[in-house]
Amino acid sequence: MRPATWALVVVAFSACRPTMLPPHTLPDGGTVTPDECSPAATRGTGLRLLTRAEYNNTVRDLLGDATGPAKDFPREPLAAGLDNNAALLKVSSEGVSRYLEAAEALSLDVVSNRRDRIVPCNTRDLPCANRFISEFGLRAYRRPLAEEERSDLRTLFTTAQTATDFDTAVGWTLQAMLQAPQFLYREEAPIAALPALTVRLDGFELAARLSYFLWATTPDEELLIAAASGTLDTPEGLTAQAQRLLADPRALDGLMRFFSLWLYLDGVQTVEKDTRVYPQWSHALSAAWRRSLELYVLDVLQKEGTLSGLLTANVLFTNDTMSLYGAASPTGDFVRTQPTGSQRKGLLVQPGFLAFKALPDSSSPVRRGIFVLDRLACQPPPPPPAGAAIVPPAPSTSATTRERFNAHSTDPNCYGCHQFIDPPGFTFEHYDGLGRWRDDENLHPIDATGGIVNAKEEGLRTPVDGAQALQQVLADSRQVHDCLAKQVFSFALGRDAIEADRCTLTQVGDRFMNSGGNFKELMLAIAQSNAFRANTNPELTP
Amino acid sequence: MTRLTRRQVLRGAGGVLVGLPALEALAPRVARADPLAPPKRFIGLYHPNGVFTPQWFPTGVTDESTFTLSPIHQPLAPWKEHVLITSGLDMTVAVSGPGEQHQRGLGAFLTGAKLDTGNFVGNDGSRAGYALGPSVDQTLVGLIGQTTRIPSLQLAVHALVPNVSGVVSYAGSNQPLLPQNDPRLTFRTLFMDSGTPPTELDRLRARRRSVLDSVQSQLTTLQRRVSTADKARLDEHLTLVRALEKRLTALPAGTCTKPTDPGTIAFENEDQIPTVVQLQLDLLLLAFRCDLTRVATMMFSDALNHITLPHLDIRSDVHNLTHYGDSDPQRAQVGKRDTWQAGVLAGILSELNSIQENDGSTALQHTLALWGSDVSRGNVHAHDDMPFVLAGHGAGFRMGRFVKWSHRFHNDLLVSIINGFGGSLSTYGEPTTCTGPLSNLA
């Protein structure tokens, strides 16, 4: 890699647009040109602590690590289900201990086994040490090191070499780099003197933002070169790099990370069932649910690549543990099947999703309904009124779940919210607590009619019969596309989407919808937005 | 005093940035504390979704000290003289504000604060951020826990959701400290280096000192290039690195007893719950015994509490069971869980009583445990008459009693606890739901 000269360049947007836009009225089908949207003011930070997933991917790509040491790091506090909210990600007492342990193990491994990966020379002299610090440092810190940073590391290197030897000194220096905030935080932290309202990210900051968003890992060499050469500072250059990253198979890594959180796959894996009701359940089944669901999403993203595909693909990944869902693989390996009929058509009728959104001993119209309202329609129901007596529908061996839940429509304490929660939930009633298909329950035929009765968008309120029909309505909805776009936007920037982002989100939503719900187009639109390329001046935020 | 210097002062105190009330609480008494006196300790125990109220409160109450323990509290019978059962404390701060009732109650339990407006999905889909203030355990770190190797421990069994429903300890506003569910990692936090031979340890320490010094130089260099807010953020990081360096290179690595590594446990499995509880509490009490830490919280599942308890033969979703009416046999299963929980507390008290201090007393004399929940009665999601149990004599409260207050805020209990450990606060958490320390405690 050619050496790059680098200095902190702060470029205030030349056109002084107001930081906070007045609330926009959503244009009906109209489009907003990109330049109308400014980055929104948010509280928060420009330092984004690597998540555990990002840390593991980063050391995999930097050092060739295969151990994933961040599995033992403190968990991220989720915000709206996402793990990368920059303001909430903070180091802790336990965290710094784990960083130290990981840095020690990683340095020992790489220096012993893959030294060439980090040291660009074999001379074991001072010029070689300097090259290691500058060249590996650039990759670790995702930007060229400032002179002071280099000299500090050189001091450590010299101390270490005096006490030990050259390669051990490489290890010590690497340990310091891996615990330095320059490595642990993604710097998206440009500053500017007031009264500048917005400040552009420089090329290296943008390279990291782009790479972690699309690939969930550290920038590759080509991206760093684009940053050093100034290419990323132009909209065309940024677009070219974004398209390169999106064309790569790794482009699904960022999106898969998003969907893992959106579905909360970690929760799917730890579901447990009442074995008196479901003797088929085992921990192995929960693990299979997770993997099957993950493979479904990955398959759709690789093939259709659209939101509509996600909600309508007729695919089931299954293995020997999942024989209760029909055609199974004879082994523990998962095979891709296309079941006859439509019982497994769409994400929301995959066994893992249905079993997760259920009770230990029965289905749960409530949990399924809330997921649809919250994660797909972005219309979460309000909490139960304070002091209201919550009386769960009693278990029954004669009535259907739907009949039991009718109490919700007669008790005014429940009706306020459950009039909205239950109807989308009822459309899943053909699936029991394990996500198995059923035609009847307790000898009564299943009634799976329902819908999103309070949807803001008229089309989304269409009454349906069954979860497949519900998914088709969701797949066609602009509201649902906007809802997903907002969540992916939030994931890209590591912060909540707020009212001032409405302009950007409208523009991004237009492109997502017009592309037929193509996720790569969504990610490209987000990467091209002003909100992605610039921050508001952090000195402005209260 | 400018805000920045005030923050710096606070940061210096406990290794983490604690909330403002701690400042007033800290200075005078800590300076006077006798270094040879037995250490003071605090444990917060969180128990989700309220209790089975019909079997919770004492019966045959003649006066504060003369009563019969309820069926649920029977396991505490040997420790009756060391326990204080409360009535009439209302968690009013959790009645309104962002979030649903379990989230608000869990957030407020030890903070006395409301939740931030946020974007996080609750059990019922409502949205809330994290609590807007530090929890009492973290404030107590500044009062009683400054000299130990580990400032505090946040432990849990099956509190798996990493959001507002899965955290009880807060370093400050919007600074959740998610608990550790895995005993293997609890062990590593407490006993890092404990098996390292002395000669090797010297080399290790020399290297870590150099490396961590370099990390600190890198950190201060970065600070010159970031915004005012991020400088402060990096200051907190710097404090933690300094504390780590001190912990690993200056303090003795040995412990008072040889710990056993619990190894890998399927800690996410419900049938492992009793094993994980035992291991986490064993490690916690060992940490107390060796004075590695003096402050801890332990969560018994999270506020969503979508678990079954196979070891109690509770096979339904426990959260759902708490919703049934008081006379419904389904709900009585909650009482079985609560009784188990009382037994766990009894086990802790027994262990504390076995830890001998220098002056001949036991750790039970110098520890306060607070056992509480997010709601009182799960079937109405009530926040009045919260089920709090205090145990041990660490805060100087008169124990062996059942004390009824008439609608006092639970924040008043929190401020009493701080002051019982030497603080001098007049309020804690949300000021509109705090009238000051409770009388009739000390």
Could you give the topology of this structure?
The complex is a heterodimer of chains A (542) and B (442).
Chain A: E1 47-49, H1 52-63, H2 93-113, H3 126-141, H4 147-163, H5 166-179, H6 181-184, E2 185-187, E3 198-200, H7 203-214, H8 221-228, H9 235-247, H10 251-263, H11 265-269, H12 283-302, H13 307-312, E4 316-318, E5 335-337, H14 351-356, H15 365-376, H16 401-404, H17 407-410, H18 412-426, E6 440-441, E7 444-445, E8 449-450, E9 464-465, H19 467-476, H20 478-493, H21 502-514, H22 519-528, H23 530-533, E10 534-536
Chain B: H1 3-14, H2 21-32, E1 41-46, E2 59-63, E3 66-68, E4 83-90, H3 101-111, E5 120-121, E6 127-128, H4 136-144, E7 153-157, E8 169-172, E9 175-177, H5 183-191, H6 198-223, H7 228-249, H8 273-289, E10 295-300, H9 318-321, H10 329-354, E11 367-372, E12 389-391, E13 401-409, H11 410-420
Parallel strand pairs in B: 1-10, 1-11, 4-13, 7-10
Antiparallel strand pairs in B: 2-3, 4-12, 5-6, 8-9, 11-12
Helix pairs in contact in B: 2-4, 4-11, 5-8, 6-7, 8-10
Task: Describe the 3D structure.
- The complex is a heterodimer of chains A (542) and B (442).
- Chain A is mainly alpha-helical.
- Chain A contains 23 helices and ten strands.
- In chain A, the strands form five sheets. Chain A has a two-stranded antiparallel ribbon with strand order 1-2. In chain A, strands 3-10 form a two-stranded antiparallel sheet.
- In chain A, strand 6 (440-441) and strand 7 (444-445) form a beta hairpin.
- In chain A, helix 7 (203-214) runs antiparallel to helix 8 and helix 15 crosses helix 18.
- Chain A is globular, with a radius of gyration of 26 Å.
- Residues 1-35 of chain A have low confidence and may be disordered.
- Chain B is α/β, with parallel strands linked by helices and 442 residues long.
- In chain B, a hairpin with a 2-residue loop joins strand 8 and strand 9 (175-177).
- Chain B is globular and about 65 Å long.
- Chain B has helices at 3-14, 21-32, 101-111, 136-144, 183-191, 198-223, 228-249, 273-289, 318-321, 329-354, 410-420, and strands at residues 41-46, 59-63, 66-68, 83-90, 120-121, 127-128, 153-157, 169-172, 175-177, 295-300, 367-372, 389-391, 401-409.
- In chain B, helix 2 packs parallel to helix 4, helix 4 packs parallel to helix 11 and helix 5 packs parallel to helix 8 (273-289).
- A seven-stranded mixed beta sheet of chain B has the order 7-10-1-11-12-4-13, with helices on both faces.
- Chain B is built from eleven helices and 13 strands.
- At the A-B interface, helix 2, helix 4, helix 5, helix 11 and helix 15 of A face strand 5, strand 9, helix 5, helix 6 and helix 7 of B.
